[in-house]
Amino acid sequence: MPTIVHFEIPADGVERSKKFYNDLFGWKIEKWPGTDDSKLTSAATDQPIEYWIVTTTTDDKGNKALGGGMMKRQMPAQQVTNYINVKSVDEYKSKVEKLAGKVVSPKKAVPGMGYFALCVDTENNSFAIWESNESAK
Known about the structure:
By secondary structure, the protein is α+β, with helices and mostly antiparallel strands. It has helices at about 15-25, 90-100; strands at about 5-10, 30, 50-55, 65-70, 80-85, 100-105, 110, 115-120, 125-130. Strands 1, 2, 3, 4, 5, 6, 7, 8 and 9 form a nine-stranded mixed sheet that branches.
């Protein structure tokens, strides 16, 4: 069954936001080296972005829980986005549209990791569908 595998927090002030979540929850937030070569682009603007990986833990033993990312806000109304793992972005894009949702950005690659598309449900809530694929380019 598809499930949430990643979340993304947009921030107007990334350093301020990193401090907030670290101080509040103890989350570890580090710049993702994959953004240094400018291959990662915003789904909203198609411009290169810097990206930080958010590592959460479930207990004092350091067991990992659902992880996420943080980036500079790309649009004024951009909110937290949950990424839902599916077997095929193409298949689920069709399902979204058949069920009266909208695909608001085309399928994009995260090199070496997978593919995603941003969508909106029937209530105008945004989410992303994610397909893991190490061959993504």
